[in-house]
Amino acid sequence: MTFRTEQEKFWTGEFGTEYTGRNQGEHIVASNVALFGRILRAAPHVRSIVELGCNIGLNLQALHRINPRFELRGHEINATAARAARELAIAEIVEGTILDELAAGRTFDLAFTKTVLIHINPDELNRVYDNLHALSTRCILVCEYYNPSPMVVNYRGNDDRLFKRDFAGEIMDRFGLRLVDYGFTYHRDNYFPQDDVTWFLMEK
Fold first, then answer.
1. Which CATH code fits 6-203?
2. What distance in Å separates the CA atoms of residue 35 and residue 58, rounded to the nearest whole number?
3. How far apart are alpha carbons 8 and 79 in whole angstroms?
4. CA neighbor of 174 nearest in space, from 104, 113, 125
5. Which residue in 95, 103, 102 sits closest to 16, CA to CA?
6. pLDDT tens, 15-69?
7. Is the pTM of this model over 0.85?
8. What's the number of CA atoms in the CB half-sphere (13 Å) around residue 191?
9. Close Cβ partners of 26 (under 8 Å, ≥ 6 residues apart)
10. Could you give the CA distance from residue 158 to residue 156 in angstroms, rounded to a whole number?
């Protein structure tokens, strides 16, 4: 696999594999069920969903529990994580970088990322934005760390591995999308905590 950025190499290597060990468990799936249940109320037409950067499939598991009839696909760069997601047998899993062109004739009602854009080299973000837009027939969802202007955050002692910005605003401006709904998830939620992530549901 050929990579354009140091960030891609970072996530395919030891750090990316260790990440899967730190981030798993039933409590995460339950929190994701609550989150996606809330989001999908504003998109009742959704029947097929693709996730860019699915890791071991925690979001896909939640979506499958919400509706086992959802047609699901995940794209994942880390081989260990992709294998774990595939073993769930609930979604088609494609191993590879999401900086490559992904649209190959198959589209979905909803394309989304969750804490993935924050780890993409800012110079390559438009490639991922284009994939989200091309893969979606109607809705795009991003659940990411928000900041009104671009900034870099040291990530577990690593520089240039976590970036905050207004991802949704950039996507809406690039493609002329309409904002359908948005919200915030808090790490101290009493029942369904998440990272302090802001989500934006957009529609073509």
1. 3.40.50.150
2. 12
3. 12
4. 125
5. 95
6. 656 666 666 789 999 999 999 999 999 999 999 999 999 999 999 999 999 999 9
7. yes
8. 4
9. none
10. 6
